[in-house]
Structures are given as C-alpha cells and as structure tokens.
Amino acid sequence: MNAIIVSTLLGVIMMFCSWGIKSQQAQKNIALIGLFILIIANLAHMYGWYVVDYDTKGMLTYSFFGLYANTLLFALTFIYVWINGDEIAKIGNTSADFYSLFFFILCGISVLTSFDNLLMLFIGIEILSIPLYILTGADKKNMFSNEAALKYFLMGSFSTGILLLGITLIYGATGSFHLTTPIVSISTGFAQEQILLSAGLILLFAAMNFKVSAAPFHFWTPDVYDGAPTVFTSFMATIAKAAGFIAFINVFNSQYKALGYSWTLLLTFVIIATLLVGNIIAVFQRSVKRMLAYSSIAQAGFMLFALYGKSEISNEAILLYAVVYSIATIGIFAVLVKMKENSFEAFHGLGKAQPLLAFATTVFLFSLAGIPLTGGFFAKYYMLSALLKAGAGLWLVVVAVVFAAISIYYYFKIIQAMYFTAGEPAINPLPNQYKYKLLTLAILLLILGVFPNLLLNYIYF
Amino acid sequence: MMLVSFLFLPVLAAIILLLIKNNKTAQWTAIIFSGLTLLVALQMLYTPMDDINIAWLPNLNTRFILHADGLSKILILLTAISFPAILWATANNEYKNRNVFLSLLLFTEAGLMGVFLAADGLLFYFFWELALIPIYFLCSIWGGEKRIAITFKFFIYTFLGSLFMLAGILFLNAHSSDHSFLINSFINAHLTGGQQVTAFALFFIAFAIKMPIFPLHTWQPDAYEQSPTAVTMVMSAVMVKMGLYGILRWLLPLFPVAFMVHTHVVVILSVIGILYASFIAIRQDDIKRLIAYSSIAHIGLMNAALFTHTQIATQGALIQLFSHGINVLGLWIVADIIEQQTGTRSMKEMGGLAKKQPTLAILLVGFALANIALPLTNSFVGEFLMFTGLFQFSPWMAAFAGVSVILAAIYTLNMVQKVAYGAISEKINTIQAPNKGAQAVLIILLIIVLATGVYPQPLFSLTADTLQQLFVK
C-alpha cells in the first residue's frame, strides 16, 4: 500500500514541479529524491511499517516476493533516471512531465506486483500502459515518434479489450474475480462453464503476451521501440516489461492449472515462437536499435520459462533475469543514445576511441548473451534450472541454448564493430561522469555474475 | 592453498600487465609470472597439494573446488611449460598494444588451469568459457586478414558446444541425489541407460568440437592459420587437450554405460578423421595449415585410443597428452621463426634452411621426427601404447589408423625436405639466427622430447592414480 500511495503522490508533485522549478537539473534531482523516498517507503512496508493499513477485501495481497520485486524495479528506475536524466531533458519542454509519468507507471507496477483480483490486474495494466503511450509519442515534432505512439495506442487498447473480454468470460464461468479461488475447475464444472473458462483464460493469455511482446503478439514491438525516443525505449524494454512479466506470472500461476496439459502446450508454442522470431529476425537487422528491439523479444522468450511452474527457483529466476536484463539493456541503450546514428557502422573504432565505454558495452552485451562472469549467465542458468525443476523436458533446454548461441551472433556484431574494425566512431562528446556511471553498471553486472545470491538472498528475509 | 596460485598468478599478472605500457617490461613481467606458475607446477610434482573447497553459491549448491590428480597434474605441467616457452620464444614478435595481448594470453592460462583443476560441474563450465573468451579477442584483434569471420565461426562453434554441455550439467544436477554439482554426486547420479545416452551426447558434442573430431573440425585449420602464432601455439598445444581432458574427467566416469555403447561409433569417426586429416596434410603448401591438419590427425588418434577403453591405450593417451603438446609447440616455434623472418608460410618459397641455418634445421628435424613418433622420441611411447590398445579393440581399426603413421611420415618428411634441403631460396636467404630466447626454448623442448622418449617412467607414475581410478573398480 505504501508504494501505491507514495508513487501517486510523487507523480502529482512532479506534475506541478514544472510550474515553479524551471531548471531541468533540479527537476531531475527532485525525481531522484522522490524515487529514493519511494524505495524507502516500500522497504518500510516490507519490514512491517505502513502508512495506511486498509482492508482491500482481498483485492490486493502483499507478498514479500512482490514487495521485493517492487524494490528492485524502483531501484532500477532510480538507476535509469540517474544515468539518463540529461537525455530526458533534451526531449520535450520540461522533463518534470516525464518524471511524473514515470511515477504513475511505478504506481501501476506496485499494483501489478500485488493484485489478487483480475480487476486490479486490469487497472494495474492500464495505469502502466497509458503513460507508456504518452512517452512513446514524447518527441512531438518527430513523425516516427507520433506514428509509433499511435500504433502502440491502437494495438494496446485493442489488446486491453481482449484482456477485459477474457476477464469477463472467466467471471462468467467462475463467478469471481479472485485469483486464488476458482469456483469451477476445468474437469469438474459444466460443459458451458468449461468452455467459458478456457476461452477466457486463452484471451487473458493472449492479452498478457501482447503486453510482454511475446510472439505471435509481438508485431508492435519493433516499430514502437524504434520510433520512440531512445531513452524511453530503454524504459519500456526494461522496467515496464519486467513488471508485465511479474503480473503474468502472478495470474497464471494461480489459474492456469485449470487448463492442464493444453496450457503447457500453448506456453511451449509461444516460447519457441518468441525465441525463433526474436533471434532470427534480430540477426538480419541493420540498425542497432531495431536489433535490440528484436533481441528484447528474444529475451522475453527466455523470461517466459518462469511460467512453467512456480517454485522457489522460478521466483529467483524471474527476479534475477529481470534485474540483470534491465541493467544490461539500460546500459546498452545509454550508449546508443549517445551515438549519432543507430547503425552498426557508428560503433566502428569505439574500442580505440573510448576504451572505458567500449569495455562497459562489452560487458552489457556479454550479459545479454549470457556469457559466464556476467550476471546474464546466471540469469539464463536459473531460468533453465527452473524449467527443468518444473518438469519440462530436456529438449526444451536444448532448444533454449541453441537460441542463446544464435543470439551471440547479433550481440557480437557490435563487439566486432567496436574492437576489430578501424574507423571513427560516430559518437557525441561524452562527459567523463557519464562513462563512470556506465562503468558502475558494468561492474554491477560482473559482481552479479559471480555472486548472484547477493541479490537473491533477500527474497527470503 | 597452493592450487589457487595456478589461477591467482596468471590473473594477477594479467591485471598488472594492463597497466604496463613499456613493451619490454610487459614481456618480461609476463614471462616471469608464467615462470613462477611453472615453478609452482614443478613443486606440485613432488609435494602433494591440498584440495581447495569453499562454498560459492549456497542456493545453487555449487562449490569452489579445485582438485589435482595425475590427469590434472600432467596437463597443468604442460600448460605451465607452454606459456613461458611461448612467451619467451615469441618475445621479439611485433604486436600493437603488446601489454593487452599478453594480458589476454595470461587470462587464457588462468582459464585453462581452472578447467584442469575444477571438480565441480558449474565451476568447470565457468572456466571452460573463460578460457575461450580471451582467445576470441586475441584472434580477432591480432589475427590475419580474414580473422574476424573465421574467429567468429570458431567462437560460435565452440560456444554452442559448451552450451550443450551446460544443458547436460543442468540435467545431471537435476538428477543427482543431493542436487549439487560435485563430480562425485554426478558419478553417483544413477541415471538410466537412456538418460546416460542423452547426457553423454550433450557433453560429447562440446568435447568433440573442442578437440576437434571429424566432422566437427571445420573451424580448426582456418582458425590456426589466421590466429597470431603465439595464440595458435596455445590453442594447439594446450586448448585442444581440454576436450580430451573432458572425456577422461567427465565423460568416462559419469556415463560408463553410454560410453561403452558409443565406443565403435566414436572410434570409427576418429579413424576417418585421422586418415582424412593426414591426406589433406599431404596436399598442404602452407606450413601452418600442415601442422594444423597433422594436429587433427594426432588428436583423433588420442580420442580413438580413449574410446577403445583399454587400459594400455588410455595409458598411452595420457602420456601423449603431454608429449603431443611439447612436439607441436616445437614445430610451431620453428614455423614462427621462419615466418617472422621471411614473411612467408608457403613451403614452395622455402628451401636450403640446413645450409643457411643448420642449428634451426636440426631443431626442425628433431621435432619433425617426434611428430612421426620415431623411437627415442616421446611420441613413440604414447603412440605405441595407443596402437597396441587399438589393436586389442579391433585389428581393423588399428590397421586403418596405422596407415596414418606412414602418412605422417610422408607429410612431415616432405615438409622437412622442402624447408631444410634443396637450393637456398630467395626467402630463406634472408633468414638470420633466431634470437637466444627462441633457441633456448627449442633446445629445452627438444631435451624434454628426448628425455621423456628414453625414460618415460616419471610420466607413467604421474598418471598412475588416474589410470587406476578409471580401470580398477
């Protein structure tokens, strides 16, 4: 409850900041302080201190896992703003507007990590999505940004409709919005109820897949990620997406059992399609930004493995994956935003011109590719381990590692451009401070690459 | 704690090297630190070293365990000898950013040492990858003209293999009784026959790509040719042994049933590979490619010997792990001296080395004879044992593989003839006496070749415990 209330208040405060405070720097600092307060408030909730303790009649239930996920996502947002603050300032008139949108998104995230009711899921997703539509179109004078925003909005609202229809059908079948108490199960109920429930769950599943950009509902992703201002793409592809995954897991680890075997089949199909589409199309991209968009689809395929079955290790896996993937992606987008163009050629000779930056980029790419000594390895490792624990076949693990090997191809194209091809990198001048920030992220990934339990131990206490 | 120094010394040196800009200082720092590692390795031969066993990731039940038995020791010795030898022999080669080059090489050494010491599945996988990544950068930055594409092929090939191994490790972890990665719990995992075959296949692909075994060898000659010679030496003297080590350490103890089922398939593939590589070696004009193909043939023989699962052939292969490394190192160093000074690798343009530089020619002939396993050289011991085992396994296979000895004589002596004899060619005429370091290294290596050829007993006793573990149960 703390996080929801505080993030909303901060959103409103940020909104009015742009009246009194003109300095972009000051706005950024206020946002950082706000995020810090939000993290503290959420930590306070984790350890038993509430601002308000209101009985939600089971609409929201707070698990330690959900709250910890909140903390991590808020911390990631903090890192994101800390690094990208100056870039955000370059877009639009006042960055305070964007920060207030971020806080509203975080409010949506707090709902998504704690809902126990399909209506709250719907509300959470809407609170999350609407600011994202606005952020996509933030670069008002750029036609691509406008096009992306419109596309995202149309497709997004359509999928929201499907989500709502799914919820309605489930309600029709079970008579309840609650996740934990399905009234009929697929095997015992009447035939009509069974049909309603299956149809509802499948619609719900499709809508959630849309939100996390899993194939075959991924078509909006490359266009939107490509069209949106790069800083905001970074936010959408990381924090917003991770929240979507946590919600997805929350829903389907309670209701999906109703679908039984067909559910596993469906999920396997979606995962393999996602890995296939993401990885194969990413190989052929000429623009780094589009490549990263497809790679984020591929990474989503990996994160979907957490849906196979809820266990301690799958909880660990999704958190680790979300954090590590987000850090690496925020890092790589932070480099990309400084490039004059999005092509691979822009990176030529970066290793020589900017050794520190190139090193950090290498770590980010290694992590995305899942190479040992970076956090990405353990993220993938935990996912696959959770998959085996959940009883999936070894063949699925083998399929996953084959796709992981394919991903090396496109991630290493940037490394090749940086180190092995001579040339003048098309990069804007960088303040030293910015490089050190990125280096910090890289070191964070390396630490998680040797001791992932630094992050995971807190799930339990 | 001494075992940690095999990892610690190279890593420390690698980090120090990044800060040293002066080429000469950097070179000597690298040589001294790898020399210190060699000293520790020599000490290990005489005083047993305690295992390292530290908790690493408690949630995963994985531990940081280093353990050295005979198999580890012989390969650690090889690694520890190779690195100072390579660094000293190639001290005069020109590299841009030498300190980074050396630093990456020493990171590789640490990775290799880790592979040979790790007794925990996940740790093994970690080091397996860590040995590969510096090599990727070394080849791609300092390699020949077509380096980027070829190194990338090599990298993706081996990375895919190791990912299969990771899937296998996960599978074993899920099936071991205490859900740990310890090699002993893997051994006691009680897999059914079918499960063994699955896991065997996953591990074997990784090892087969690394060695490489026909038909997974296509990355190798290109990669050897395009890499800077110092890296080629590391790859062919030490890195290929990772695959053979993997078979002895993991494949054979973990999946005995699946191993026995596949002996014939693997031996036949290896023998095909041996003959195929030997025939191609005969046709080569590039001296680096010739050595590369000859190396495929030799590794293939060792792999065939391991898969006969006879004690005698395994003994031979254990010795040959060491001997092959020394021989091929000697050949590469000679080839590198010639290439550095004449700028060519084509044997057509060579000739008359014996008249121009008799010492170098004698050294070349020495290693060439070792390469064809002449009695009194170290390879003779190993190859003789391996052929004996192969004969026990199947006389036909021994006969086919035996042809490779003749073929090896053809291509090796042909090389000697083209390089050392005949009229002094234009290119060879420019050749100077190799620097003292390279000469010293070659002489030391040749002494090792002859010493272990005449008196191989120390190597036998070094690996006796491994052999006993594998065969007396």
Walk me through this protein's architecture:
The complex is a heterodimer of chains A (461) and B (473). By secondary structure, chain A is mostly helical. The model of chain A has no long low-confidence stretch (mean pLDDT 88). The relative contact order of chain A is 0.09. Helices cover 73% and strands 0% of the residues of chain A. Chain B is mostly helical. Chain B has helices at residues 5-19, 23-46, 70-89, 98-117, 121-142, 147-175, 183-187, 193-210, 219-226, 229-254, 256-283, 287-308, 311-342, 353-356, 358-371, 378-393, 395-420, 426-429, 436-454, 457-471; strands spanning 52-57, 62-66. Chain B has a two-stranded antiparallel ribbon with strand order 1-2. In chain B, helix 3 (70-89) runs antiparallel to helix 4 and helix 4 (98-117) runs antiparallel to helix 5 (121-142). The radius of gyration of chain B is 21 Å and the shape is globular. In chain B, 61% of the residues are buried. The model of chain B has no long low-confidence stretch (mean pLDDT 87). The interface between A and B is medium-sized, with 28 and 29 residues.
